[in-house]
Amino acid sequence: MDMKITPTQLSGTMDAISSKSFVHRLLICAALSHKETTIRLNGTCEDILSTVRCIEAMGGSVKVGRRELIVTPMKRLPDEASKAPPSPVVLSCGESGATARFVLPLAAYFFDSFKLVGEGKLPYRPFAPLCKALAGAGCKFDGDMLPIVGTGGIKSGKFEIAGNVSSQFISGLMFLLPLLDADSSITITTPLESAGYVSMTAEVIALFGIAIEKQGNTLRVTGNRRYDSPGTATAEGDWSNAAFFLCMGALGGSVDSSISLNGLYMRSEQGDKEVVEILRRFGATVEIGKNDVVKVSSGALHGIDIDAAQIPDLIPTLAVVASVAEGETRIFNAQRLRLKESDRIRSVFGLLSSLGGDVETTDDGLLIRGKKRLNGGIVDGAGDHRIVMAAATASCVCENPVVIKGFGAVNKSYPSFFGNFKLLGGVADVV
Fold this sequence. Notes:
The protein has helices at residues 20-32, 46-57, 79-82, 97-110, 128-135, 167-176, 195-207, 239-250, 275-282, 315-322, 344-354, 385-394, 417-423, and strands spanning 2-6, 12-15, 37-40, 61-64, 68-72, 89-92, 113-117, 140-141, 148-151, 158-161, 184-188, 212-215, 218-221, 232-234, 259-262, 285-288, 294-297, 305-307, 328-332, 358-362, 365-369, 377-380, 402-405, 427-430. It is of the alpha/beta class. The protein folds into 2 domains: 2-17 and 237-430, Alpha-beta prism (UDP-n-acetylglucosamine1-carboxyvinyl-transferase, Chain), CATH 3.65.10; 20-231, UDP-n-acetylglucosamine1-carboxyvinyl-transferase, Chain (Alpha-beta prism). α4 (97-110) runs parallel beside α6 (167-176) and α8 (239-250) packs parallel to α12. The longest helix has 14 residues, at 97-110. The radius of gyration is 22 Å and the shape is globular.
């Protein structure tokens, strides 16, 4: 089925959904702790449920509600019991890269034999740096792309890993290392991209009583620690998904069509809060009110340069803003976009081209020349939740309807997206 959006002016106020990145991390720490934890949140999604499914396969349990997750910890089996199963424990990660990269190191600790499987584009996404780091500590794998069959026996020690492929590899090791019997370290061998997510991991781990020390490009972790549950934890609002609605506010055409979001934390470690400053650089009007309410309305938009290294998930929607910003916008350091749910350099190019935008690809990103309006048309969602939401964002500046093929991809991170789009006055119909 397709989604047809009839262009209209959006405005209003809504609550941000919870950050799935934050919820993933809370779930992992809660599952590793010593007692039950209640996680308070605003909405779940397919990726979060993938992490829930893996926790349950590893011996924990999670009671799922829309406003809370109640997590009963998983327990490591005694050595003699872990050797008993005749076949590997199967951990199904769905399409969630975060789930797979967080769970893989833990599987090597909890089980002698395990198998990680995934769906959609996940089997084509990279795992080699993480597998190499774990293999150096005693694990064995039959390959470095899903499905992966591995054997455990992980040992503490010095881990080295690149920082420019996925920060999730580093986070996965950070969850594991406090459990090992001696101190360990993680040395990041290249400049770290999406650094905010590593800081977020350290923040959530600290909430469960474990400090990770940073010295230059090395993280030092004390071993033989226990995760201590705070009992109740609350997930932050999601800057990555809020960005689509904030950008709609910037595209609204008048101050009267402003969009406000509640529940976004300005002191968050989420790198995608940078959307506030980037929209200001574009020329949009952004106000931060009491209790971190973020309000965005339009202004005289003009092209800017955008370094994507720390904010890759923002690029699809920022590219839409660029498509109607006067002058030229250059997006660079975006190579990692090719390793997402789709090749996002190619799929953003396809999105804007389909709607009449003036865009070209470069070696490491996109070059976009702004027009007053886009035409509208048919967009291939590319099986990618962020491309679907960016297409809906683009409808705000289209002369004619936008038809999105494969709109159901939003369920990966934001099942209520189109419901919230309509809440703000959007017109979207399944056809």
